Amino acid sequence: MDTFLAYFHLPITNHTLVFLIVLAVILLAPMIFSKLRIPHLIGMILAGVLIGEHGVHLLERDTSFELFGTVGIYYIMFLAGLEMDLQGLKRNRRNGLIFGVLTALIPFACGIGAGKWMLSESWPTALLLGCILASHTLVSYPIVGRYNLGRQRSVTVSVAATMVALLFALIVLALLAGSMQGEVNVLFWLSFALRFALFALVLFVVYPYVIPRFFRTFSDHVMQFTFVLALMLLAAATAELCGLEGILGAFLAGLVFNRFIPRSTPLMNRVEFVGNALFIPYFLIGVGMLVNLRPLFTSKTALGIVAIMVVVGTLSKLLAAFLARQFFGMKRREGLMMFGLTEAHAAGALAMVMVGTRLEVAPGVPLMGSSMLDGVVVMILLSCIIASISTDQAARQLRLLQESSDLAASEKRATDDEKIMLPINEDDTLPQLLQTAIMMRNSLLNRGLICLNIVNDDDTTGLLMQHSKECLQRAERICSAADVSVQTQSRLAVNFVNGTIHAFRENDASELILGLHRRRSNKDSLLGTYTQGLVSGIDRQITIVGYKMPPNTFAAINVAVPHDAQFEPGFYRWVERLARLAIEIGCRIVFHAAEQTAGLIREYLTQTHPLVRDEYQPFDTHSDLPTLIRDHAADQLLVLVLARRGTISHEKWMNHLQELLLPAAEQLNLMLLYPDQEGDAPDTTSFTQPHITEAPSPSRLSLWMSKWIRKIG
Prior knowledge:
The chain is α/β, with parallel strands linked by helices.
């Protein structure tokens, strides 16, 4: 009996029960607070207040909360960098810098004034309060991720401003600590500059060199996740060694990983899942356990400190967001989002509080007393609550606006026949095929993939059927990890080509993605009889891929476009697919095309995919294609837009594709693309008016005549 009572003695210290209680809080808090229409983040923090030593003292804030909580705040900052729109950041870097200066200087000045003249503190303490209010933490960023708004302009500007404000506060804090210890001199600045240069060297030189090589060498998902987590923590540790905060290193590590982890990949799904399921809730609960609300009811001094700091901190951040919104010409909901993301004081403020407790203004007199410490911690709690509510309201408004714009395009989506089929037979090409299809698919349609495996009808041993089941099960696991639905089919057929064509038509598929034929000998053709039979028997879009490395490590995509490609019915379909691929990979895409064709591609991408980093090079397929193939870099993807015999854009060099590609086939990351031939040719006067009748598309006869006249001339 004594053993039983000791097992449940408060505070509970048994590791199994501690972890069980934390998991129960992570599970139940969202369920309870969602009924009250309160953001989940607030529920986690308030639950921490309740079970902590200043509440019912159910749990002690032991080393597990410090460990998992530290990783949790790193995770928040890492995900902010990982999900950020880098192109949006480049376009809005000026706005991010301006907002960062505003949201740092205004609260900094207000904090100094409140500390010196309202709380009657010393100048060093007032400066410390100014640093605490100037900095902020993206505590409410998980709300943004839940609503899938990471690429919104206001979010991008706010995340950039967070780094500016944090860096400003850390530099001022370092100066304050150094001046109180008598260390601010030329040697101090030289040491800081050298450490910062070392930090930048690791993050922006070593990391971009190591990351793609690791991903190309190791394909195991567990190893890749462990590698990502290790490099995130290494960046945080390097930042701390250089005199900076670890959250700054974690955020910059996320920016470096940004282009190597596409949003639709299983790896991204695993990174987000682990953080949102464990580490981030642990951090929020740990923050709540630090809060002591009792002084608010027993000490008027603590209550006054909290009231002054909450009012001053909130109004100063609100003023900065309002001024930035007016200056940038943003909507009110965007200003609310900026305020919500920059209001919370958590990791940076806690670190500065710890510095304040270590520094002494006089022997035995800490820079930050106990009442001030309690007031700051309660202020952190209230700022997190205000930030979560504001961010949630802004996210709801922005999401409704985004959904209304999606509804405006609902008619187009309703008529979109996208249904991608993948014939899979080889184990080694299966991951790259599925990853290509997942990145090319339209996530708004949320339609699954169709994976097909053809088994020879003459198989009597059952080995081929077993291999087919294993391939399809592996495809299901990969798609499940990426949160993409998949339909698997195994078929018996005497003729593989006919079996695939019948399955394609029965499933009413819109396009086919298959692997490049594996040549058995030098006499074997590049495409093989199977692929050639599909190209001849299916008039829909066919994409053939043969990669030498994972697609998420491509540095660029080069697309060779033939003359008159814009007159093919499937012109905008393949442009759309390649645009999605470039956005997911995060690399530039270079179109090598004639002037008229390039102009139409540019117009389409400007209107539909402004985030694409598109470039255009004048190109003649007869003279420039051999050079493009010969000089193509090993870490880039080469896309050849081809055409079937008898179609408008078919050219003579396509009949000699094997002679062109074989000399460099072993080094090329290759994609061969046969455009869709179903339907009418698009209106090349404007892609936004595909059904216009006043200016009909040229007839096929006139196109053929103009083509031969150009060749003769």
